[in-house]
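### Sample
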Amino acid sequence: MSQIAFIGGGNMATAIIGGLIRQGEVTANAIRVSDPGEQQRQNLAQSFGVQTFADNLEAVSEADLVILAVKPQMMKTVLEPLQATLSARQPLIISIAAGITLANLEKWSGCRNLVRCMPNTPALLGVGATGMVASEAVEIEQRTLADRLMQATGITVWLKSEQEIDAVTALSGSGPAYFFLLIEAMIESGVKLGLSEETSRQLALQTALGAGQMAANADVGPAELRRRVTSPGGTTERAIFTFEGAHLRDIVDAAMQAANDRAGELNRLLGD
Ligand SMILES: NC(=O)C1=CN([C@@H]2O[C@H](COP(=O)(O)OP(=O)(O)OC[C@H]3O[C@@H](n4cnc5c(N)ncnc54)[C@H](OP(=O)(O)O)[C@@H]3O)[C@@H](O)[C@H]2O)C=CC1
Ligand SMILES: O=C(O)[C@@H]1CCC=N1
């Protein structure tokens, strides 16, 4: 592959570029990033040695693969001025934007070879999770290429249909924030119970890490792992009873439904 262009050099682009370079999947001089922020461009150039541009057209002009990493609300505005160049070159396009459908991406870019991905921020550490779906025109070699690129940031899962990607956004795309919220709340409660901020933070973070690693590596499911912590008549039982009494599962369900619905709205807001 000769050149990869990133349109938008923010949080997720940085995470993916970091993964690609760390894994040796792509060399820095094959990566071109466009972003309006001068500071952002400088940071990317300094951290990774990639080529940066203020002008999107310059970034995509020689690219065989274009990764769209701007906010969903910007997508139409960003793609329409690039349409003539993109439709003439027909690069593989990978969009990581929440909500924006393959149909709209095709309409605005003039490209048929499209992959929609939903990564998440742990991609920064190589432990990301990405859901993926491709348009019908995408050839097997292009699917393999997209898969290899995203695997540089963690695991990939190919979805049965595009309809599933909003659910992936609600689960793993936004999901890190749910766990961070729980960690924040646990730290605050630890302090209320008399621990120092530092002790509470240290213990909450290590507990999150340990629980995540156990859940990922155990040969039993999370319900059984929870049961093993919960001594009959003990402390965990009281805490879980409190969570269930406050309908934690319904709260999680409502939150994920809201995230899923918002993904659809982000696409509809941009209209045709
Ligand atoms: N953050 C996350 O956890 C995840 C995000 N995503 C998706 O990734 C995409 C990017 O999100 P994220 O990285 O968080 O957002 P960021 O705001 O960090 O990155 C977007 C970047 O695009 C730049 N930008 C704005 N306008 C243009 C333009 N016209 N041309 C080129 N670049 C432009 C922004 O610059 P400036 O800031 O100056 O406007 C910014 O640096 C979104 O579509 C989001 O849905 C997907 C999965 C997870
Ligand atoms: O909040 C958002 O819209 C993006 C998509 C998934 C995570 N962050």
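The chain has a mean pLDDT of 95. This sample (Pyrroline-5-carboxylate reductase) is used throughout the tutorial notebook.
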